[in-house]
Amino acid sequence: MTGTVGRVVQRIDTLVILGAGGDLTSRLLLPGLASYLGSSRGSELLLIGVDRAAVTDAAWRDTVRSAFDAEPSALAKKVAAKSRYLQGDVTNADDLKRVLNAAPGRVALYFALPPAITMIACTALSTMPLPAGITLALEKPFGTDLKTAQALNRLLQSTLPEDQLFRVDHFLGKSTVLNLLGLRFANRVFEPLFSAENVERVEIVFDETLALEGRAGYYDKAGALTDMIQSHLLLVLALTAMEPPSSLSADDLRGSMAQVLRATRSWKKNGNSSHRARYAAGTVDGRSLPAYEHEAGVDPARKTETLAEVTLAIDNWRWAGVPFVLRSGKALGEARQDVRVIFKPVPHLPLGLTGVPGPSSLTISMKPATLDLDIVINGQGDPFTLERVPLHSDFGEGELNAYGEVLAELLECNTTLSVRGDVAEQCWRIITPILEAWKADRVKLDSYPAGTAEQIDW
Ligand code: BG6
Question: For residue 354, what is the DSSP state?
Answer without folding.
Answer: B
